[in-house]
Design brief:
Blueprint lengths: L10 E12 L2 E12 L3 E5 L6 H8 L7 E6 L2 E2 L4 H7 E4 L11 H11 L4 H14 L15 H12 L6 E5 L7 H16 L3 E6 L2 H7 L2 E6 L2 E6 L1 H8 L3 E7 L4 H11 L3 E5 L2 E6 L6 H11 L4 E7 L3 H8 L7
Parallel strand pairs: 3-8, 3-9, 6-7, 7-8
Antiparallel strand pairs: 1-2, 1-4, 4-5, 9-10, 11-13, 11-14, 12-13
Helix pairs in contact: 3-4, 5-6, 8-11
This protein binds adenosine-5'-diphosphate (ADP) and magnesium ion.
The site of magnesium ion has 5 residues, from α1.
Length: 321
């Protein structure tokens, strides 16, 4: 059922000044963004950042107030049916019929897409197997756990073999095992060639899963890049932590100079230094200096910044609901 591709420039999604207002509130503010075909791309942001509103515009469920976007090469305003045929959605809220079984839900959706009966039967079985629900194919969706519902939603989202799959906070509210299962499934789908647009407020998850991320806050993109690029650029530097039996001011000054630290502090007896990057031989040099001074080292470690630190550095710290 694969449709002809319309993306000769290699972009699955291109947004130009994409904006959505609700009254006086600007939920999405002039988004400029390109997502390459085949990417596993993340929108990371707290509640209210504008992730769902962005997804709704890019799935043609909500019209933009201003700006444009192309999805799979087609205009979201003027060519909405062509866009819809090429995308699948796993919505934030479960949108299946509780009274229907897993299989019946898929059949219902397949019929809406106009899929042929034979094809639909084959594809439903195959997908229920992929998402680990084949044994429960005749069970009512309403009796499923959160994780099972989410897996069924994923099967429904890819039933018509879309080029692009949007997943809106698919792991929010799930237990750790289910979260892992959803992430693995997402990666499997992405490896099979589907472009995945994934939203989450979980920074560790975005770090582990996504090849590229935008950090959104209050409708705006604060930063864009791979998780390691973002940590390098906005993480505030790497940390080196050294736990010694004893130290004095002179040693601290020497250590600071040795690694060109931008800051040095001592917290609970542990020396903490911030350095722009941890070069190859840096830890080695430190141990060299300490052994020359005959100082016992209890612990010497380097820590890269987390996406959480990137996020805090880029956004305001107030709590969102
Ligand atoms: N239909 C709507 N009417 C009014 N305000 C809305 C509507 N949908 C979303 N918003 C507001 O837009 C902002 C962004 O919401 P949303 O896109 O759902 O954020 P996220 O998915 O990142 O949590 C929030 O302040 C939200 O309250
Ligand atoms: Mg949302």
């Amino acid at each position: 059922m694969s449709l002809e591709s319309n993306t000769p420039n290699g972009y699955a999604i291109e947004c130009k000044d994409l904006t959505r207002k609700f009254g006086t509130l600007t939920a999405v503010d002039s988004l400029n963004l390109r997502i390459r075909k085949g990417e596993l791309f993340g929108f990371l942001g707290p509640n209210g950042a504008g992730k769902t509103t962005t997804i709704k515009m890019l799935t043609t469920l909500l019209s933009p107030t201003s700006g444009d976007a192309k999805v799979a090469g087609y205009d979201i305003r003027d060519e909405a049916p062509l866009v819809r045929a090429r995308i699948g959605v796993v919505p934030q809220e479960f949108a299946m019929f509780d009274e229907l079984s897993a299989m019946e839900n898929l059949w219902y959706i397949g019929e809406l897409y106009g899929m042929k009966k034979e094809m639909l039967k084959r594809r439903s079985e195959e997908l229920l197997k992929t998402v680990g629900l084949l044994a429960q194919k005749n069970v009512r969706a309403g009796s499923f756990s959160g994780g099972m519902k989410q897996r069924l939603s994923i099967a429904a989202g890819i039933l018509h073999t879309p080029e692009i799959l949007y997943m809106d906070e698919p792991t929010t509210g799930l237990d750790p095992q289910s979260r892992i299962a959803i992430r693995e499934l997402t990666q499997t789908l992405n490896r099979s060639g589907i472009t995945v647009v994934y939203t989450t407020h979980d920074m560790e998850e975005a770090d582990k899963l996504c090849q590229r991320i935008v950090i959104m806050d209050r409708g705006e993109i604060k930063a864009e890049g791979s998780p390691s690029e973002l940590k390098e650029k906005y993480g505030g530097g790497h940390r080196i932590e050294i736990e010694l039996k004893s130290h004095d001011e002179r040693l601290l000054a020497e250590l600071k100079e040795l690694v060109s630290a931008t800051s040095v502090s001592v917290d609970d007896g542990i020396i903490q230094m911030t350095v722009p990057t941890v070069g190859g031989g840096m830890l080695h040099q430190i141990s060299g200096l300490l052994s020359k001074r005959k100082i016992d080292v209890r612990e010497l470690r380097s820590k890269e910044p987390s996406l959480e630190e990137v996020f805090i550095n880029l956004t305001s710290k107030e709590v969102r609901d």
